[in-house]
Amino acid sequence: MAFNPINWLLGLFSLDIAIDLGTANTLVNVRGKGIVINEPSWVTIDKRLRQPLAIGLEAKEMVGRTPSNVAVIRPLRDGVISDFDITQVMLEYFIGRVHEQSVVPLPRPRVVVGIPTGVTEVEKRAVYDAVMASGARVAYLIEEPIAAALGRVFLSQILRGAWWSILGAGQRRWQCCP
Questions:
Q1: Domain containing 65 — which CATH number?
Q2: How are beta strands 51-55 and 70-73 bridged, if at all?
Q3: pTM of the prediction?
Q4: At what angle do helices 84-98 and 121-133 cross, to 10 degrees?
Q5: Would you say 27 and 20 are in contact if contact means Cβ atoms under 8 Å apart?
Q6: What is the span of the domain harbouring residue 116?
Q7: Cα–Cα 20 to 30 A to 61, which of 3, 8, 43, 132?
Q8: Which H or E run contains 95?
Q9: Alpha carbon of 68 to those of 42, 47, 50, 74: distances in Å?
């Protein structure tokens, strides 16, 4: 990737964030602040225009209460993207919410995204493309059990044998670390 001075300049005022795109909930962690967003992975769209009307908790509250021209959808299934465009809109919304207090009108954050173990290269590419299209300056993908193990190691500062189980709405994953 070539050096882009505009991305570099906007990156000086952007945050470093980590996103857990879950089937049920999306978590957004900002470096130094912790988890700042924990909202349902739901989007309400106008069927005719394919434009989002509500995202997150507001969209989930609309389930079963919408007219026929409005659909409430979950753009993630089993921990992977099932609707690319809607996932991109959802990511743009969450990145924008994190940067609401920022001075820069166009944030360009560095983003780390957790992905399930065993996803295909096509699914990894879809996550990467969605994150980059939503305004990230750089996107890194990390498998969720590895991220859980790293978090455990950094918190305890002691490496011991451990067993992690990650239980989500879409999948259950287990990881053993000696």
A1: 3.30.420.40
A2: unpaired
A3: 0.80
A4: 50
A5: yes
A6: 5-144
A7: 132
A8: helix 84-98
A9: 17, 9, 14, 17
